[in-house]
Structure formats: C-alpha cells, structure tokens
Amino acid sequence: MSESHLSDDEVAALHRAGSIAAENFRQTLSELVEETTSADPLEFLARAVMMVTINGLNQSKPESKSNLQLFQVELIQALALSRKHTLSDPGTDYAAVTERVTDLIHRNAQAYQDQAKSKTSPDPVENRKQEMLNLIRRWTLAVRGARQGYQTRQYAKELATSINQSFRHYYGCEATEVVAALLAIIDLCHSRIKAHMEDMRSWMMPRNAGKGLLDAFTRNLNPEEKAEITTRAAAVRHDRKQLFALLWNINEQRWARLFRFSYVELVSTAPLGQAQAIISVLEQLSLNFGDVTEADLQHLHLDNPIQRRPLIKLNDGEFFCVGPQILGVHLAEIVESLCGKYPKLKKAAEKARADWLETRLSDAVRTFLPHADVREQVKWSDDGGVTTWESDLVALIDKTVLIFEAKSAKLSAPARRGAFRSLKDALNELIVAPSAQSLRLKQRILDANAPLSFNSRQGAFEIHPKGIRDIVRLNIVHDAVGPLSSHWPQLKQAGFIPEDADIAPTMSVFDLETVFELVPREVERCHYLTRRAEIERNSTYTADELDLLALYSTTRFNIGEDEYDGGHLAWYGLSGSLRYIHDENRGVRLSARLAATTQFWSNILEGLEATRPEGWTRFGHRLLNVDISQQKQIEKLVKEGMRKTRGRPDLFFHSGVTFGARKKMQTIAVAVGAPVLPAQFERNLMTCADSALEQGGQDDVLILYWYMPRTSEPYDFIGVVKQQRLKSPFAKFNEPSWVLRG
Description:
Blueprint: H1 8-38, H2 41-54, H3 70-80, H4 94-114, H5 124-142, H6 149-171, H7 175-203, H8 211-218, H9 223-233, H10 240-253, E1 260-262, H11 263-266, H12 275-284, E2 286-287, H13 294-298, E3 311-313, E4 318-321, H14 324-329, H15 331-339, H16 343-368, E5 373-380, E6 389-397, E7 400-407, H17 413-416, H18 420-447, E8 452-454, E9 461-463, E10 470-477, H19 488-493, E11 506-508, H20 509-518, H21 522-538, E12 540-542, H22 545-555, E13 568-570, E14 579-583, E15 587-591, H23 599-611, H24 616-624, H25 628-645, E16 652-659, E17 666-673, H26 678-696, E18 700-707, E19 717-722, E20 731-734, E21 737-740
Parallel strand pairs: 2-3, 7-10, 10-11, 12-13, 17-18, 19-21
Antiparallel strand pairs: 1-4, 3-4, 5-6, 6-7, 8-9, 14-15, 16-17, 18-19, 20-21
Helix pairs in contact: 1-3, 1-4, 2-3, 6-7, 6-15, 6-16, 7-8, 16-20, 20-22, 21-24, 23-24
C-alpha cells in the first residue's frame, strides 16, 4: 500500500491493468463454462472431489496451486450447473479437462481480484480503503471451514433443537430431522469414499503386477463385471503400465456412483409423518442443471449459490452431492438460510444463535480455565446507579481479569463481498461497540482505589483493584472476521473504524475453543490471551486466529525485535502447520506442535500450576516469555549453583539472566542455598535481587530459589521483587515453599 499520492501516470497504468484483468475474467469465465459443460458434469465433479480427497485437502485455507481447493470445487459445481445436463463423449479425457479447468480457475480468480486495480486513486486514503475491501474479498473467496467439523455439527444440531417447534410449523418437519438427513449424506459419502479408497489401496500395491494386479482389482466384483474387465485387459495384461492405466480409468468411472443418493434411503429412519417434508426441504437445497444464471456467474467468487444449495437434482427420486466437504463446511449456514425465509423463524433462530454463543463461551472459559471465578451478565454502575452497564462474561483468575463481550450478529453477504458501508456497519456492531464496552469496565477497575461491587447471574461479587496486575479484553463473535482482525491501524486510516477507538482482540468462539484445546496448560492459555493483545497492539501483521495459534505453538509469541520494529509480518498461512488427526469422538480434529521446552522448564511450569501461589499467572507469563536457549542457560546456572553448594550449607549461590526485545526486557535470577531461618532467607533474597537488578538494569526481577540438598519440588520459591521494595520486608515463610505476597 502506497503511503504517498500516486502520479497520474501510475494511476493510469493501474487502471489499464484493471481493464486487462476484467477482460481476462470475462474470457476465462467463458472458457470455464465451455470446459465444465462439454464433459459429463457428474463425471467431472466426481473426479474433482476425489482429487480433493486424495490430495488430503486442509479445509481451512488453500495450500498448493497445483491442487484443487474446496472453493474451486464449489466454483466448478456452479459452472457445471449453468447449462442443461448433456452427456459427453465416452472417450473424454477427464484428466486433461481437469488440468485445463484447474489452470483456468486460478487465472479466473486472479483476474477477478486484479479488476480492483481499476479503482486505484491518487489518494492514499482511498487506496487503503480499497486494500481492506480487497482483503475481505480474498478471504471470502478462498477460505473455507471457519470451524472445525465437529464444531459445525454441534452448532447445527443444537441450533436445530432450539428451533424445532417453529421450524416444523413452516416446513412440516423438525429441524433436527433435516440436520440428521444432511449429516447422513456426509457420513454416507465418507463411508463410501473410505471403502473405495481401501479397495484402491488393495489393488494398487507395488507388488501387484500382471495377473496379480488384475486379480486384486476384480476380487470383489460380480462374475459378469469380472469377466468383462478380464476381457478388456487381455491385450495389456503383460504390460503393467498399460494395465494399470486401463484399471485406473475403470476405477475413475466408478467415482460418480459414490455421490448419488436416493431420497428414500435418507428418510428411512425419519419419524412417521415427516419423511415427505424432509424430502421437500432437501429439494429446496438442490439446484437443477441450468439454474445458475449469467448474473450468478458474474459474482460467483463472492456469492456462490452452491454454498446454500449444495445438492444437484437428478430425477424425482435421486440427487447428487459432490462429496461431503462442501455440505459439511456450510451445514450450519444452510440451516440458518432455511430459517431466514420466514421472519418469525428467522427471529427465533437469531435468538437461539445469541443464546448459544453466550452458553458456549461460558462453557469454554469454565472448562479450560478451571481455577477462574467466572461471572456472567455482570452489571455495574459508575454514577451511583443512574446508568447500569453490563458485560457478558468476566473471569477472575489470580491477579488477572478477563473481560469477554459476545456478539452473535452475522457478517452480512454484502460485507463479505467488500461493500464499504456494510462492512463498516458490521465492524462497528461486532468489534467497535463491544470494545468500547469492555474498555469502560477496564477503566473503571484501573481508576478505583477501593473494592468494586458487581452483580451477576451467579450473584454479587467484588474486584479488588489493588491486587489486579493484568486486564485482558476480548470480543467473541460467532462468525470469524478473518484477517481483518489484524488490521486495526489500517482500518482506522481507511475510515472503517474511529481513529480514537481502543480495539480489543476479536476471535470467534470456535477459534477460542481451538486455542484453549491446543494450548496445553491453564497458565499458558492466560499467557496466550495476554500476549495476543500485546502482539496486536505492538505489531503490524496479516494473520487470522489459527495462524496466530500456529505461531504461538512454536514460539509462544517470543519473536524478539520483530514485535516492535514496525515491519510487516506475513503470518497468513502459518496455520498450514496445524494438522487434522483422527479423533474417536469427533472424527478428526486439529492438532499442533508444542513450543520447544526443556523438561526442566516443563517441571517448573507444572509445579507452578499445581501449587498456584498468589501471583501465579503473572509468574507464569514471565516464565513463558523464556525461549528454549534461555531455558537451557538458566538450567545450566542452577546446576552450577547446586554443584557449588552441595555439602556447603555456608554458601549461597546466585546469578541472573536478562533477555528479551529492547522494549520487553526481563531479568530472571537463580538462587541456590541451604534452608535457613526466615530472616537469613530474606537477606539472601535481597542480595540476589540487588545483584540481578544491578546487572540487568530492570525495575524488577523474577527470583527462582532452590534448596540444597534438594527437595521433591521442582523449585522452592518463586516471586517478583521490585526495585523500590528492596529495603523493606516482602516475603513470608509459608511451608513448604516461600511465596511472595502482594
């Protein structure tokens, strides 16, 4: 993005590039329609979705330009439905068609995005606005799977349960039965594909050659099919390469049947009296060949009708579902779209959605921060009761206050397409207003000199401001806002949000759950949320929440000077390191690598979380800001201290390490010595702190103390000493450990 005015020549050049892109878009779109409708669309779509399956698509984000991605399969399906269904030449080379279509789709998508160059202005502010609009358009175009599959299923089922009565009034069947039918399609697809893939593996074994390859391929076929294939293979049975090509072609011809379904098989277990109504709903979620119009094609990249109507009508009794991925990703939105057709049902669904979000948020915080005091619907006043404010959820954990504001409003279709006014309104509702709400409570706590009283759903409670060391604000939304959440400075400059707005980090409740699940310790989850806010405040970067989670999983956000140097950090795509693994209860779920940590350091963190002394979250944050090289350095000092003090109760060893980015330096001191009386222990701590503070030049120091001979604890004392406290007593003996209070 240029920070200066562009010259007339530069603007003209960009406008020409935009015009060329517009022409390329029209040309490639026309070619795509011809290619996808010249072959049998069902055969081609089956091959496309099997390519996605075989290539192991990660649904959250595109990975490789050489492979089809989920959003491209959606585009292909829409293109195929733009004309009436015609059968193609049996000799069609589908591999060649697929290669041509894949190339055309890449070119078409790029041309669609490059058309925006025609809107370039000499004014840098206007260009910033266009860049933000293009960012949300690119995200809308390419990103699929804002939730993990099990999360989508859970939400769709629970939403359906909440609206069953109203839904049946309008559709003649319960919403849960419709969801069950859609899930049955997904599960049947998965089971069919799994069985077919297992069959493929059985005959594609390298050891199979000639007769062995043919026998393996025909092993489970009926006699007629086996005889036919054996006859066709007779001429090439001694040439493995040609035989394999023949069998692979026959194998591909079987793929289309994997995605054909009859309505009867899906409603066979439905309650009496609802089967026909369920079929009627499924028909509403289907498109005929020729239903996708020319107007649809012009805006296909940002508003694809396939996402809400993913089924293809074949005849009165059958339909085609091109694989489970599209239906699975959009399942919840499909249910919401059905509700949206009737105002009263839509209103009921919106209320259910809002209630579900607040409940899900509360469950996540209570589950993954088990030692937090969690309060919902927190009410308070700062003017003697004239005005009452409310925060959705407040969690107190040690010396940390977490303020969550939940917003269930949807990012509208125009906003996802990059309409300026719609996007600005959505950002205000989802992010700006709740940020102001949480900031109001934060400021109330910071300004208070005495305990503050609050009411909540769980009853009255107090916050003691003098004991609070950290206040973290978070906006929790239902639908992800993608990489926009990392662009507040640019959004301010472009006029999307007010210049003076203090924006809280924003993430979906699904991403919050995923973060909490993949970050292993309670203290680390608190650290993630605190550092998440700091990273957003200090850095300029492009990333969505899963990218940030992937970064944390390898670095714990310890990125050195990169956090402060002002350079743009391109983290978008890091989530590719997160992998889906099999889960017995969920099917698949995301997993992440854990940040490199020595066993010595892990023991300290686990000991801290097990004992939870006052200030444990803040101590933990300091420990988690230590990377593995510094962990090893500190462990080396501890071993040196133990070696020097072993058998020498008269000796007291201490040393310190100072590290971190220039704006985030911290000192950790190591102390090793024999158990002594409290007065001497305090003098030892003062000596250690004085030396470490002088050496490190910091205002405070975290001290870790080990007794010699060793105890069974991973450490024997942890505490923070501030410069101004060195001359006064600050520690109290508290068996079995020393604990810093205050």
